[in-house]
Amino acid sequence: MGGGAEMTLDEKTEAKLIAAAHEAAGHAYAPYSDYQVGAALLFDDGAVITGSNVENSSYGLALCAETVAIARALGEGRRGGLQAVAVVGPEDKGDGSPITPCGRCRQVVNELAQLGGTDPVVLCVGSDEVRRVALSTLLPHAFGPAHLA
Q: Rounded to an integer, what distance in angstroms lies between the CA atom of residue 103 and that of residue 58?
């Protein structure tokens, strides 16, 4: 990926992005797992696009929050400019540790990041901690659009 360096966000921007992810989690459709996840994407023009997980009675058809947010961004014509991603889960489940995108979502986020040559910071949010990790650290040696050219 281009850029290479992990982006840092100021506290206000980070708080806004995490709040947007929490709001998105409130719209999750998770009747089977009861595990509501929200994701918020920050673009270089300041736009924030969110998504929440959408489960399905045919479990394999469920969509993760990050995938929904990326699909919305691509559907709006965005082809790059991804600067940061925040991912939150329910605060009353698990041990409160920060959650990270699953492997599939890491690849889906990587696709959009590579289109713009960015290495977005991923805010993995827990009840008492936010881990800030570059996407390239979460998905090293990633496969992307450049491999098909």
A: 20
pTM: 0.93
Beta-carbon contacts of residue 75 (< 8 Å; ≥ 6 apart): none
Whether 148 maps to a domain, the answer reads no
User: Using CA atoms, how far apart are residues 95 and 92, in angstroms rounded to an integer?
Assistant: 8
Which of 6, 14, 66, 76 is the catalytic position?
66
**Distance between CA atoms of 120 and 137, rounded to whole angstroms?**
10
Q: Is the CB of residue 9 less than 8 Å from the CB of residue 130?
A: no
Domain CATH number, residue 60: 3.40.140.10
Q: Indicate whether 78 belongs to any domain.
A: yes
Q: How many domains does the chain contain in total?
A: 1
Place of tokens 């491999």: 147
Strands 82-88 and 48-52, by their bridges, are unpaired
Which tens digit of pLDDT belongs to each residue from 13-25? 999 999 999 999 9
6 catalytic? Reply is: no
Residue with tokens 């290495």: 119
Count of other CB atoms within 10 angstroms of residue 4:
10
Residue 31 and residue 5: Cα distance in Å, rounded? Answer: 39
